[in-house]
Predict the structure.
Amino acid sequence: MRLLVIEDETKTGDYLHKGLTEAGFQVDLARNGLDGHHLAMTETFDLVVLDVMLPDVDGWRIVKSLREANQTTPVLFLTARDSVDDRVKGLELGADDYLVKPFAFAELLARVRTLLRRGLPAAAVEHLEIADLVLDLPRRRVTRSGKRINLTNREFSLLELLVRRQGEVLPRSLIASQVWDMNFDSDTNVIDVAIRRLRMKIDEPYHPKLIHTVRGMGYQLDVMSED
Ligand code: CA
C-alpha cells in the first residue's frame, strides 16, 4: 500500500513518514502543497494524508482539484482547527475523513486502515439467479432457461426486488415504495397488474413457477415443490 503524506511542518511530516513506514506502508512525503498536488495528480496512491494548512496551495484546493479530475483516492484531512465549518467544508470538497491536530498516532493509523478497507472494491454482484432464471444487473437483461426475456425497466426493477429478497413475503406497500418510489393506497391494483404481466413473461411458459401470491399479504418469489 502506497501512501502520500502532504505536510509542510518538518516535525509532523517526519513523524508521519516514520510512523507509517514502520506500520508497513510505502510512504511518499511532500513538504509543500505544490509538490503534493503534483504527486497526487501524476502518481498512484492508495491514500493521501493531507494537511489543510499549507503555505502555498492549501489542502482544500488540493482535494477539490483531485476530485474535479475524478481522482477517487481516499483523502484523510489533517486540520488544526476544530471547527465544524472546516470539517464540513473538507468533507463537502471530497475528503473522506479528517483528524484534528494534535492527534495520537494510533488514531491516525486506525483511520488510515479504515479508509483503505473502505477503498477496496466490494465483490460486485453482477448476476442474480434463482432456478433457471438469471438477472444480468449491469445490462438489465433477463434470461430463463437460457432464453432472453424482454422486460420493461419497471418490470426489471420489480423482478430484481423479488429475486433479491427471495423467500420473503413482500407486502404491496413495500413493493410500491421500492419499485415505484411512492406510496400507493392499498386499494390500487397497479402492483397486481405489474405482477400479472411479469408472471406472463417469466413464469407462464416455464416450470417451476417462481412468483407466488400470498393471500392477504403480498408476493413472494421462491422455488417451491409444487404450485
Ligand atoms: Ca501545516
Q: What stands out?
A: Residues 8-9, 51, 53-54 surround calcium ion (CB under 6 Å). The chain has eight helices and eleven strands. The longest helix spans residues 105-119.
